[in-house]
Amino acid sequence: MSQSTVNELLKKNKNKWFSAKRISEILDTGVGSVARNLRKMRQSNMVEYKTIHLKYVYKYKTTWLAHK
Length: 68
Prior knowledge:
Elements: H1 3-12, E1 18-19, H2 20-27, H3 31-43, E2 47-52, E3 55-60
Antiparallel strand pairs: 1-3, 2-3
Helix pairs in contact: 2-3
């Protein structure tokens, strides 16, 4: 499972927020692998994130491509 796989899922669902657990369920992969990729994407400012009930949720950052 690659970072681009997570990116494509978020890109297809631009207005939805996902937890790492939910992304791992959709992609049928380990939550640790998803969390690692999301951390890299967060550090690169590729995704938006917020905390809900002590958990991070993520969505595709639509302005990211404009900054490239």
